[in-house]
């Protein structure tokens, strides 16, 4: 299997499988183009080197028509999008505050509506909210992505969850973030699940639901011991949020792009008043 996207998998038998090997490599220009990336031409390097540096910008580099205001974090993304549509149709907000366009539905192939706007997450940065709705088959999904450039270094967030109040902390997990919970020996690599803006409790619940609904290795052909271990992992994830005896535990977000975030208990107080949350930067590495 040679997958430039890195999204393929072959199961390993035991901890040391001498017949199975995995190699990470740099993508070629042709592979990047096939995956849809904008690859600069050879003469662009000289142009970029000699061009004057752009003026410094504050916040995310977003066009005005993607900037939005008055986002209600107490409501779901779909409800916020629906509210903005109603306000837009009634003329209460300008047309340049949100962007929407038609895209093909990934489920039925007909045209659906993709909405996009920007929100400010307190203590973090501007993020893009994207919500898709297909009027033909009813498919709806949403995604939150941090705006701006990829960070110069990777960032690791570590939260010690000691009481139910920690479960209500805001969390932005990007699709480039790996998730670890050492107490239950759980690790989810980057790219396994899409991005989400939720709470600690909501993130753990989404991970458990995703594993239960989308994992292709839990069918009737799976070995019983592996299926039992996988089911136990899902049960352990759900107990973290429902069983007080599972406290405390540690949640780690390791993001190579520095696009993830865990909120403080009291954002108005200094970081020193929140010893359960730490953030550290590290050098990026291939496959991190």
Automatic annotation (TrEMBL):
Superkingdom: Eukaryota
Pfam families reported for this sequence? jr-ZPR1, Zn_ribbon_ZPR1
Task: Note down the stretches annotated as region Disordered.
Answer: 263-288
Q: Which GO terms describe its molecular function?
A: zinc ion binding
Q: Which GO terms describe its cellular component?
A: nucleus
Keyword field: Metal-binding, Zinc, Zinc-finger
Provide the Zinc finger ZPR1-type domain boundaries.
Answer: 103-264
**InterPro entries (alphabetical):** Znf_ZPR1 (IPR004457), ZPR1 (IPR040141), ZPR1_A/B_dom (IPR042451), ZPR1_jr_dom (IPR056180), ZPR1_Znf1/2 (IPR042452)
Cited SMART domains: Zpr1 (SM00709)
- Homology family: Belongs to the ZPR1 family.
- PANTHER family per UniProt: ZINC FINGER PROTEIN ZPR1
The protein's name in its UniProt record: Zinc finger ZPR1-type domain-containing protein
**Organism encoding this protein:** Vitrella brassicaformis
């Amino acid at each position: 299997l040679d997958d430039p996207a890195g999204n393929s998998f072959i199961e390993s038998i035991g901890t040391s499988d001498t017949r199975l090997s995995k190699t990470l490599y740099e993508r070629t220009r042709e592979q990047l183009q096939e995956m849809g990336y904008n690859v600069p031409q050879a003469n662009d390097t000289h142009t970029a080197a000699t061009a004057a540096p752009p003026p410094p910008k504050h916040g995310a580099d977003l066009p005005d028509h993607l900037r939005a205001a008055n986002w209600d974090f107490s409501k779901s993304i779909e409800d916020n999008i629906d509210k903005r549509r109603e306000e837009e149709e009634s003329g209460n907000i300008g047309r340049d505050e949100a962007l929407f366009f038609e895209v093909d539905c990934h489920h039925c192939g007909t045209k659906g509506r993709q909405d996009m706007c920007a929100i400010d997450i307190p203590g973090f940065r501007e993020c893009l909210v994207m919500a898709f709705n297909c009027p033909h088959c009813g498919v709806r999904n949403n995604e939150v992505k941090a705006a701006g450039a990829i960070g110069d270094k990777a960032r690791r967030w570590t939260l010690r969850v000691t009481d139910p109040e920690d479960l209500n902390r805001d969390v932005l997990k990007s699709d480039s973030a790996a998730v670890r919970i050492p107490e239950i020996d759980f690790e989810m690599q980057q790219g396994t699940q899409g991005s989400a803006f939720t709470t600690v409790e909501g993130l753990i619940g989404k991970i458990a639901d995703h594993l239960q609904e989308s994992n292709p290795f839990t069918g009737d052909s799976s070995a019983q011991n592996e299926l039992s271990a996988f089911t136990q992992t899902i049960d352990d994830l759900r107990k973290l949020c429902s069983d007080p005896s599972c406290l405390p535990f540690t949640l780690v977000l390791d993001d190579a792009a520095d696009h993830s975030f865990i909120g403080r208990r009291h954002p108005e107080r200094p970081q020193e008043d929140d010893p359960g949350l730490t953030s550290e930067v590290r050098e990026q590495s291939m496959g991190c």
